[in-house]
Amino acid sequence: MRLLFLGDIVGRAGRQAVLDRLPGLRQRWNLDCVVINGENAAGGFGITEAICDEILAAGADVITLGNHSWDQREALVFIERQPRLIRPANYPPGTPGRGAAVVEARNGARVLVVNVMGRLFMDPLDDPFAAVERELSACPLRDVADAVVVDFHAEATSEKLAMGYFLDGRASLVVGTHTHVPTADTRILPGGTAYQSDAGMCGDYDSILGMQKDESIRRFLQKTPGSRLEAALGQGTLSGIAVETDDVSGLAKSVSAVRLGPELDQAWPTAWDS
Ligand SMILES: [Fe+2]
Ligand SMILES: [Fe+2]
């Protein structure tokens, strides 16, 4: 099965890159399942129902979230009627929405997608390792799911690596989101789980994490109240990871970073183009 995971969509630039390129990539690469983090899709802050629908229509099967889940308050309501939009599983009990989704991929396989949030340098939440363990024991790889994708929305690479090795052999892909900068550690762990500490963002990289530079720089220079951070509006780059899984084991057979757009070194699964 061919899986594509894309990191945090930031604002219009990120949305446009996804809308322009994803439908073509789904065809060209014969993608079976696409998961995208959408926590910054609405101007950098959260996601609206209209934007959620637009991203799903462009070819995403599941949209994940993170610490910006509720920046657009309407998400607290519409997430209840949108099973393809998930938020971190380790929010407190009673939080709207779900932390996992099982979707049917294009090839008919069942894909479990889990979203969890880290605790190092983040708002403390419930234990993400226990939360992911719960979701995986309810829907284990091979027994119930044909592929398992875990989006670990976290700041610290140590916590992300710990999650990767914790789930090695039990997930098809463990990928980090949240830092908006892609890491150069795309690989398959010894137990067969594809891994990358951070997927990077879908957005304008001529920016500071997808937001316009001036106000962000000013905040480092002066500790006075300023204006709102606004999403950068230049051409967006798609950034993430592409994984081919084995249909029997559900584990990764090949993996490639994906970076398509103006600023970064380009990367894509070249074998999929043949
Ligand atoms: Fe983000
Ligand atoms: Fe985040």
Give a description of the structure.
The protein is α/β, with parallel strands linked by helices and 274 residues long. It has one domain: Metallo-dependent phosphatases (Purple Acid Phosphatase, chain A, domain 2, 4-Layer Sandwich). The protein has helices spanning 11-28, 49-57, 75-78, 128-138, 157-166, 213-221; strands spanning 2-6, 33-37, 62-64, 100-104, 110-117, 147-153, 173-177, 187-188, 194-196, 238-245, 252-260. The protein has a six-stranded mixed sheet, with helices on one face. Strand 1 (2-6), helix 1 (11-28) and strand 2 form a beta-alpha-beta unit. It is globular, with a radius of gyration of 17 Å. One fe (ii) ion binds at residues 8, 39-40, 66, 178, 180.
Q: Identify the overall geometry.
A: globular
Estimate the mean pLDDT confidence.
97
Question: Secondary-structure element order, as H and E?
Answer: EHEHEHEEHEHEEEHEE
Radius of gyration: 17 Å
The CATH superfamily title:
Metallo-dependent phosphatases
Distance between the termini: 16 Å
Name the bound molecules. Answer: fe (ii) ion
Q: Could you tell me the number of beta strands?
A: 11
CATH topology: Purple Acid Phosphatase, chain A, domain 2
Text of the CATH class: Alpha Beta
- Secondary structural class: alpha/beta
Sequence of strands across the biggest β-sheet: 4-5-6-7-9-8
Which parts are unreliable, with pLDDT below 50 for 5 consecutive residues or more? Answer: none
The number of helical segments is 6
Largest sheet: 6 strands, mixed
Please tell me the CATH architecture by its name. 4-Layer Sandwich
User: What proportion of the residues is helical, as a percent range?
Assistant: 10-25%
- The amount of beta strand, in percent, is 15-25%
InterPro entries: Metallo-depent_PP-like, YmdB-like
Protein name: TIGR00282 family metallophosphoesterase
Pfam family, one: YmdB
